[in-house]
From TrEMBL:
This is Acyl-CoA dehydrogenase. Its cofactor is FAD. Coiled coil: none annotated. Residues 9-117 form the Acyl-CoA dehydrogenase/oxidase N-terminal domain. Residues 230-378 form the Acyl-CoA dehydrogenase/oxidase C-terminal domain. It comes from Billgrantia ethanolica. Residues 121-217 form the Acyl-CoA oxidase/dehydrogenase middle domain. Keywords: FAD, Flavoprotein, Oxidoreductase. Pfam families: Acyl-CoA_dh_1, Acyl-CoA_dh_M, Acyl-CoA_dh_N. Belongs to the acyl-CoA dehydrogenase family. It comes from the Bacteria.
């Protein structure tokens, strides 16, 4: 749902200019320094990017899902690591508190998350619990008015820098499934919370992940999200529904950027006396990528509109994540192919994007897990 088309156009124009004039020229620097330059972080905060999907009453922009998808597609046109920092704040970092938090929890954390004063992370994955997240082993044992957390969380985005963590831990050891899991808000400076060294990743340099280790970490009982034990896995799944649509929109944006890079190169470079773009086999690659990016855009916007209309889009969000993450992988592969040897060289953006987009098929639920979710929901609906 688009509330005010004129206002949204202005926002998208501003973001588009920021992407073109500030982020794209700094892509190589982001990768070399493995960090988002401090001045760009400040500009992102001033533009309100840290609070895109946080309601206006908490100081965010309060975008609807459709509006957020359109914005994420625009932001997708540059290195995904730029988005990762604030996207995690708006998304998996803050949404748990927003969706299921108590009014006090929302008032305490969300306004500062919306401005970027606080950076947040989402801690679900563990060394032995990835796709099978409900089998997680981190424990939270009640001790007076606190819970004592022990366990390790793996590959946590924003982990090295985050001020606030949403942590899924098992409060009921007799329940080994989803019902024994509770979500906690854990502040980054809580004694007993330790951060492992930053992971050395294949791509998306500038976005950081690390282990988050809890060793007798005492967390106030009032920090249970929503105040009730046993609801944490449901909270995590609700967070991921929105996150999957957001990531799908980013995949569409990246695919559109790669189509543009491929087309420009194919028009400029000549072989056999004519531009590459005049060879029909190159045209086929350009056309396939354009078509797939368009299909991704259409499906994400449809699912987003349905979510705004109050429909349960769990299946459709997985369909979008499945298609768009795989689609952008194919588009990136063709982009390298259209560039020939140059596409294998680090000075061309497509080489970096090729590595960056690989992640989309893995995190926030792998492609296979999306397939499992879609088919399981299909079967459930008929029985
Ligand atoms: C850069 C990065 C950032 C991340 N950020 C976060 C974060 O901020 N917070 C967080 O909690 N997690 C995060 N993750 C973790 C991510 O969500 C997991 O890596 C992902 O869910 C897969 O889990 P796994 O790595 O344990 O793989 P596994 O679950 O071990 O899967 C390995 C393979 O087996 C397949 N497989 C597993 N089960 C099935 C099945 N039932 N049917 C068919 N195939 C199956 C998978 O699809 C995959 O191909 C991040 C990961 C990365 C790499």
């Amino acid at each position: 749902m688009i509330r005010d088309p004129e206002l949204l156009d202005q926002l998208i124009d501003t973001i588009s200019r920021f992407v073109r004039e500030r982020l794209i020229p700094n892509e190589a620097r982001l990768a070399e320094e493995d960090a988002v330059p401090a001045e760009l972080l400040e500009e992102m905060k001033e533009m309100g990017l840290f609070g895109l999907s946080i309601p206006e009453e908490y100081g965010g922009l309060g975008l609807t899902m459709e509006e957020e998808a359109l914005v994420a597609m625009e932001i997708g046109k540059t290195s995904p690591a730029f988005r990762s920092v604030f996207g995690t704040n708006n998304g998996i970092g803050a949404q748990g508190i927003l969706i299921d938090g108590t009014p006090e929890q929302k008032a305490k954390y969300v306004p500062r998350l919306a401005t970027g004063e606080l950076l947040s992370s989402f801690c679900l994955t563990e060394p032995d619990a990835g796709s099978d997240a409900a089998s997680l082993r981190t424990t939270a044992v009640r001790d007076g008015d606190h819970y004592v957390l022990n366990g390790t969380k793996r590959f946590i985005t924003n982990g090295p820098e985050a001020d606030v963590f949403t942590v899924m831990a098992r409060t009921d050891p007799s329940n080994k499934g989803a019902g024994g899991i509770t979500a906690f808000i854990v502040e980054g400076d809580t004694p007993g919370l330790k951060r492992g060294p930053a992971d050395n990743k294949m791509g998306q340099k500038g976005a950081h992940t690390c282990d988050i280790i809890f060793e007798d970490c005492r967390v106030p009982a009032e920090n249970i999200i929503g105040g009730v034990e046993g609801k944490g896995f449901k909270t995590a799944m609700k967070v991921l529904d929105r996150g999957r649509l957001h990531i799908s929109a980013v995949c569409v944006g990246v695919a559109e950027r790669l189509v543009e890079e491929s087309l420009n190169y194919a028009i400029e470079r000549k072989q056999f006396g004519v531009p590459l773009a005049e060879h029909q086999l190159v045209q086929a690659m350009l056309a396939d990528s354009k078509t797939e990016a368009y299909a991704g855009r259409a499906m994400v916007l449809d699912a987003a509109r349905r979510k705004d209309a109050g429909e349960n889009v769990s299946t459709l969000a997985s369909c979008c994540k499945l298609f768009c993450a795989e689609m952008v992988g194919r588009v990136a592969d063709r982009a390298v192919q259209v560039h020939g040897g140059a596409g294998y060289m680090a000075e061309y953006a497509v080489e970096r994007f090729y590595r960056d987009v690989r992640l989309f098929r893995i995190y926030e639920g792998t492609t296979q897990i999306q397939q499992v979710v879609i088919a399981r929901n299909m079967v459930r609906e008929v029985s």
